[in-house]
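Translate sequence into structure tokens.
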Amino acid sequence: MLGSIFIIIVFIGLFIWRMIMSSPDNIGKAGEKRVARKLDWLPKEYIILNDIMLPTQYGTTQIDHIVVSPYGIFVIETKNYKGWIFGHENSEEWKQSLLGKKKFWGWSSEQHKFRNPIRQNQAHTRAIKRITSEVGDFRIIPIVVFSDKADLKITTPNHIVVNWSSLRSAIKQYDTPCIPDDNIKKIINKINSANIIDEHAREAHASSIHLTQQRNQQLIANRICPQCHSTLVERDGRFGRFLGCSNYPKCKFTSPIE
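Result follows.
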């Protein structure tokens, strides 16, 4: 009897643990740790800063990884996603497509939308540029990195988007020194001094992101551009019809049609 109760308790505990570990937050944190370990293998001239939250004129922005080096400041956004990833650098949202369970008629599929990570990194880049401006105007290279289980079917001619396995090579392709050693120390001090470590502020940041996403989704549903508030119109593209801003080319916002 006691043995049966013990087995049930263990089973329930394992089920709860699996549910907790499979939450989006924990999956994201696992990806960030994986990337941090890969960055640790860079030479010592690359200084790694992880999980940095900086103030902006609109609130705060959370940066997964910053790499300060003689060759530039690398700003890295991590996405621990698998499956097919579809997106364009100007889209508000990207799409993740997953194969689901085997059905009588074939494989089912799941699709999930997420915020364009390039745009997230643009906000990160602006924050770093503002905070380090007193030291100098240095090259800042934004990089978005996905899990090796992600098949990237994206259009990003002006941005670096790679899988984990290609991250270090993406960084090391920049081999022309542009930041003196004494400025590297100043840049790191500036970032560390501005870093927000208060837990309440970090929780407020997460809530703010959720509210912004809800607002943007509502605007898109009403055919209003969330960037410039012009009208969204249907257009034909390489991958089918999509919504584009009527203020193009001044505003290059796009969104897939449901």
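Note: Helices lie at 2-21, 24-39, 117-131, 167-172, 181-194, 199-221.
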